[in-house]
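Hi C.,

You asked whether I'd gotten around to modeling the 189-residue construct. I have! Everything is below, sequence then structure, no commentary in between.
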Amino acid sequence: MLVRDAVPRRVNEFGTVRECARRSLVRLGVAPVPILPGTRGEPRWPPGIVGSMTHCEGFRGAAVAWSQEIASFGIDAEPHEPLPPGLLTKVARPEERLRIAQLGRRDPTVHWDRLTFSAKEAVYKAWFPLARRRLGFHDIAITFDPLVRHFRARLYAAGLVLHGQSVTTVTGNWTDERGLICTAVVVEA
């Protein structure tokens, strides 16, 4: 068992998020299969499928698509609360911390620090299956458009190449509902 030595909460998250993934596969018309982790913990999807999974306290989610329609995507869900003290400097570049402070003054109902973390997690989940290498928090800079709940991610790390072209930006969307912040990034095929 892959999570044999994990705490019960982790075992539950591992199983329930993969059940969400199997149900998503069935809705796509694909027979449910085990979704095993790859060498870096990423989900290994059946051939021809791209997908992403997320879990946090009280929420599990998965989404899948055909790889000929979407090159990759990432989803993330986080509790809509501030990041733990000291984590923002590890997650956000200096210019992002300035933008987060400005956004917080304009709309204090959104935890912009946690939203930044979630957006970067979604970007990483879309990045890794294509680039096959790690991407650090400071390798990404997020800019939010609060009016349309959209964000742009500037990639400072090389490695994401599609159709012979280097990809330096990806875009995504976000929402905050029922105590959760959810983000999604799609890399078109």
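If it helps when you're writing up: The chain is about 30% helix and 30% strand.

Thanks,
B.
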